[in-house]
Each structure stands twice: as structure tokens, then as C-alpha cells.
Here is the input.
Amino acid sequence: KEKVEITKEQQALMKVIADAYNRHQIPQDVAKKLLQDQYSAEENFLLLTEMATSQVQVLVEFTKNIPGFLSLNHEDQIALLKGSAVEAMFLRSAQVFSKKMPNGHNEVLEDRIRRSGISEEFMTPMFNFYKSIGVLHMVQEEQALLTAITILTPDRPYVKDQQAVERLQEPMLDLLRKLCVLQHPQKPQYFACLLGRLTELRTLNYYHAEMLTSWRMNDHKFTPLLCEIWDVE
Ligand SMILES: Cc1cccc(C)c1Nc1c(-c2c(F)cccc2F)nc2cccc(C)n12
Here is the structure.
């Protein structure tokens, strides 16, 4: 049985990533608004747009705190952010959704999302993913590392220096593997399961692109930041 040890520098890396992840939380006022009294589909959509915009801002701030990210080629930094935004936001909202709020609020948030003019065909994969993340009961450090690993995916479109991204992603994967062994000793497959969620995440890019198109067809307005990160309008 191998003895799993987290080294000093891995502890330091963990602290930097976890602090960055916790420091940049979605403003509670935005999430709280969603839980207030009745809204029309239009108002629900506007609130979700505000929530999505703040999620992109939180994502950019978190990414800037990933050790080594700002030393990457600048075009590659943009390519990584644009290529991972949807996945990182699904991860973040899955975590917000699956535990952050007092009970009863999850149903209200789910109801708001379901009644915001988004068609059913996108709801099912979205909520299936939220549930599949919820059942894992990830600790904060695992969530933060998994998000950083998602952002540091070398084979995003237009990334030129993939090796430089791999060199940043590998230590995160190694640290996450050790953390899973230490946090979930009774589940030897836990690390593999987390990586399996990253594969499931990639399929959500497709649904998200479809959602954007259908919202635009119904003449829904986005914010400039959302237009920029997803090249719409
Ligand atoms: C904030 C939110 C939470 C849960 C579900 C949804 C539909 C949203 N809202 C959006 C998302 C989005 C996201 F922010 C996180 C996860 C999955 C997502 F579809 N993406 C976009 C893009 C343009 C406009 C909106 C309203 N929007």
C-alpha cells in the first residue's frame, strides 16, 4: 500500500488555489435575488444573465491567481479562458447548486432556472450534471483544483504552447490525485470519478452553445462580457 504524502510545495499550491477559489465567490446578492418573490420568465432570464456575468468575472479573477497562468503567452491565456469558461461555470454553479444554500432554496433556484425561457432539452443534461456533482460531496480544495485543472486544459482551440499549459496542469492533477486518496480512503476510484466528470463537462459545451443560439433567436440580450467570452453578437 503506497504511503501518500503531500509535499511542502504541494501544500503551498493547495493553499493558493483554495484561497483564490474561496476569495472569488459569486456575490450573494445576485444569488439571493433569484430566491425572492415571483418573477416572469423574462425577469428570471435577466437575473440568470446577471448571475452568469458575475460568474465570468469570478472565473477571470480565480484564473489570474493560478500560479504560472499570467506567465503564459497572452493569446494562450485568452484561449484557455474562452475555451474553459462554460465548463468552469457549470462546475461552479453545480457546487453552488448542490450545497451552498439552505434547504428549500435549491428547489426554488431550480424552478427559476426551469422557468427562464430555456428549452427543456438543455435542462435535462444540465440538472443531471448538477446531481452527478452533488453526489460526490467534493471538499472545497477538490472543487478548486478541479476548476483549475479544467481551465488548464492544454488542447483547447487556438492554444499555441500546449506544453507550457501541460507543465501547469500536471502538478494540479498530481495534487488532486493525492488529495482524493487522503480525503476519500474508502473510495479508491474517487480520483478517476472526478476526471470522468471533466469528460461529462465537455459535452455541456455543446448544449450551452445551443442555448446561446436559442436565446439569441428569441432576441434575448446578453451583457458585453458574456458576448466577449462566447463570441456572440
Ligand atoms: C447563471 C446560470 C445558472 C444556471 C443556469 C443558467 C442557464 C445560468 N445562466 C447562464 C449561463 C450558465 C451559467 F452561467 C452557469 C452554468 C450554466 C449556464 F447555462 N450561461 C449563460 C449565457 C447567457 C445568459 C445566461 C442567462 N446564461
Observations:
- The chain is about 70% helix and 0% strand.
- The chain has a mean pLDDT of 90.
- Residues 45, 48-49, 51-52, 55, 89-90, 93, 113, 118, 208, 211, 222, 226 surround 9MA (CB under 6 Å).
